[in-house]
Amino acid sequence: MAAGSSRGSRMHSAVFAPIGDEGRASLVEGRIDRAISAGALADGERLPSESELARSFGVAVVTVREALDALRKRGLIETRRGRSGGSFVTASRSDAVANNEGSLLAMPRVELNDLAVHYETIAAACAEFACVRATPDELEVIQEILAEARGAGREAWRRIITDVQLELAGLSQSVRLTREHVRLQAEFTPLLTLQDGDAEARERSHDALTEQVQATLDRDFPRARAAIRESVSGSLRWLVRRRATLSAGLLGGERVTLDHSLSAQEGP
Q1: Cβ pair 247, 105 in contact under 8 A
Q2: DSSP-assigned letter for residue 57
């Protein structure tokens, strides 16, 4: 796993994993939409061809075409013609923030709590087996990547952190647990990215993940589980506060976005 690279990452691969029996265009659209919101697909990134997407998702080309058309109409991708053409992501950071804030507002608090509990449970289950099955060499590589990631930019940092979380799940060597972790990560990460403009929240998440890796290296599952719980509960508290701020109203007639509110605090 290379720091800063999303192309070969577990998260990037999970974006184009088979959809399953319900191969509807809305599911393809939702998978790509969540990947853009989570930063797994960056602004300007070229998507695989329609035929490649159809093979990856396990659906018909016409289904992929319908999904891409819906994404184009929403302004999330654009299609260019010619030899260097294809479908490219066009959603900026502000677009992703607005989309993710809308998802946070639309999610009932009880559902948000339940998502966090589900994520924590699966992450802890993966950690328990990783404490037994992961090799020191594998974990030391992850430690190096985490250390280098502290100075990364916002989008790059989130991609690295997400990939590390999925790598840790994969070290459980349980296909079923890893698959469920990937599914939950795709659902939870777009909301987690809302924290990324908050330096304190970002540092807390980084510290907790670093502690989880060290605990796993030490074969100390209770410590690893505590680090996961601290990370998830901290993120949940942040999201609940953010949701309350967004629900409370407007600033100057406009929705208070995270980037806007942080800029206002920093001043000119």
Answers
A1: yes
A2: H
